[in-house]
Design a protein that fits this description.
Layout (H helix, E strand, L loop, with lengths): L2 H25 L2 H8 L20 H11 L12 H4 L44 H10 L8 H10 L1 H11 L8 H16 L8 H10 L3 H5 L3 H11 L18 E2 L6 E3 L2 E2 L3 H10 L18 H4 L11 E2 L21 H9 L3 H7 L11 H11 L3
Antiparallel strand pairs: 1-4, 2-3
Helix pairs in contact: 3-8, 5-8, 6-8, 11-16, 14-16
The structure holds heme C (HEC) (2 copies).
The site of one heme C has 26 residues, from helix 14 and helix 16.
């Protein structure tokens, strides 16, 4: 800034600054400020995954990064993780349902901030990032890979085999097919854990709010502030989307259709629990590297209940502006569409099977705009 601009700014501060300051601090009550603070600090501490012996190992991370875009991990050598989880699209594919190999029935989620997740996939069919990373390799709709093909890859790629043998202190030829898939899954997971989003506009505002830094507070859009007030107030969004990742990490039923096509139903968490419990790769099995055993506890407590029918993972809302389309089936194209959906919820239909905390919000056009403006800053 030149000196004139500086002087004008100083005058502006004296004349309007104090007005701005009093407005900013009065806009949120103390109770609201406490809730807002619980969305930070960002990022939370990063603790190594005890179930994965190569979590946070730098060589495993760089090997996992290579494997993430390795098409030789698919039957036709034509599909890599990065083809659906594109790094330049926040690890999504930007489409409602991917049709790379047959038509997927679920939307491709982004892969940021997953170290803080306990369940993976829209139905929570996996309880670790490494187990979830094995799923697409074996899926008939996705990479269709086989143990035989994985062995072929190891025998043709000597450099890969050597690195793997050093890292895991094993000999590749002695391993079962299952154990080899676990190795690939753990390398991929080591990389995926490093995908963490940077500070958002909201985080900067939150830091400023905690520090009573009024200039920082004022630089956050007024419309986003009003949207935040709705999010934690009459919208009650934070009952499910809370904490630094904006999700409680569990599952909910908000009434998005379960129909895939006429007569075909996605049972969500219900089929997720079944798949989890029958998987050889779950944390109760032999591939969990956790010596203490604490990582098993959550999975031990899972029981199949009727209400799990139609529940889906409560997604994080960080970077939501970049990860359209939305919902487990990609059925809503924009954030404005999501807000419209919550505003018009059909309570009667929902409460037969869904969440009791949700209610029709009937937001005004301005309130809808404000809520969208807030979501865009996450
Ligand atoms: C054909 C597209 C496609 C490919 C290829 C693919 N994914 Fe996915 N990914 C998906 C879809 C769809 C889901 C949601 C699956 C579900 O809910 O069951 C998903 C879910 C995930 C999740 C769970 C995210 C969360 O928020 O719970 C992780 C982690 C993941 N994929 C990692 C990978 C890795 C690693 C690879 C490569 C080995 C890979 N994906 C290959 C489409 C794909
Ligand atoms: C009862 C728990 C619950 C409440 C309350 C709730 N949500 Fe959700 N939210 C979910 C679930 C579950 C999904 C995924 C549903 C699906 O895919 O079928 C979701 C999905 C979303 C998505 C899509 C994210 C994506 O990546 O696909 C957005 C955005 C969102 N919610 C915002 C909000 C807002 C704004 C509010 C408040 C008006 C709110 N939510 C209230 C549980 C909740």
């Amino acid at each position: 800034m030149n000196t004139l601009a500086l002087r004008l700014f100083a005058i502006w501060l004296v004349v309007f600054g104090s007005v701005g300051i009093s407005l900013a601090s009065e806009f949120f009550s103390e109770a609201e400020k406490t809730i807002i603070q619980s969305f930070g600090p960002w990022p939370p501490p990063l603790i190594a995954d005890p179930s994965n012996s190569v979590s946070q190992n730098s060589e495993a991370i760089s090997l996992g990064k290579k494997l993430f875009s390795e098409r030789r991990l698919s039957l036709g050598r034509d599909l890599a993780c990065s083809d659906c989880h594109a790094p330049d699209q926040f690890f999504t594919d930007g489409t409602a349902l991917n049709s790379a190999h047959g038509r997927a029935t679920r939307n491709t989620p982004g892969l940021l901030n997953l170290r803080w997740s306990s369940w993976f996939g829209w139905g929570g069919a996996a309880d670790s990032l490494w187990a979830q990373s094995i799923r697409p390799l074996l899926s008939k709709e996705e990479m269709k890979f086989t143990g035989k093909k994985l062995r072929e890859l190891f025998s043709e790629d000597i450099a890969l085999t050597q690195k793997v043998q050093e890292l895991f202190e094993i000999s590749v030829v002695d391993q079962s097919d299952e154990a080899l898939f676990v190795i690939v899954g753990k390398l991929l997971a080591a990389y995926e854990e490093t995908l963490i989003s940077g500070l958002s506009e909201f985080d900067r505002f939150n830091v400023a709010l905690s520090a009573s830094d009024n200039i920082g507070i004022e630089s956050y859009l007024a419309t986003a502030k009003r949207g935040l007030k709705i999010f934690i107030g009459k919208g009650r969004c934070n009952l499910c989307h809370f904490g630094p990742t904006f999700t409680n990490g569990e599952f909910g039923d908000i009434g998005v259709t379960q129909f895939i096509t006429k007569g075909r139903i996605d049972k969500g968490r219900y089929q997720g629990i079944k798949a989890l419990q029958s998987s050889p790769f779950n944390l109760l099995g032999e591939y969990n590297d956790d010596q203490q055993g604490t990582s098993r506890v959550r999975t031990e407590h899972v029981t199949l209940q009727h209400r799990n029918w139609g529940e889906f993972k409560i997604p994080s809302l960080r970077n939501a502006v970049k990860t359209a389309p939305y919902m487990h089936n990609g059925s809503i194209e924009t954030l404005a569409g999501v807000v419209e959906f919550y505003s018009n919820l059909d309570e009667e239909r929902l409460h037969i099977r869904g969440e009791k905390i949700l209610r029709t919000l009937n937001l005004t056009p301005q309130e809808k705009k404000d809520l969208v403006a807030f979501l865009r800053t996450l």
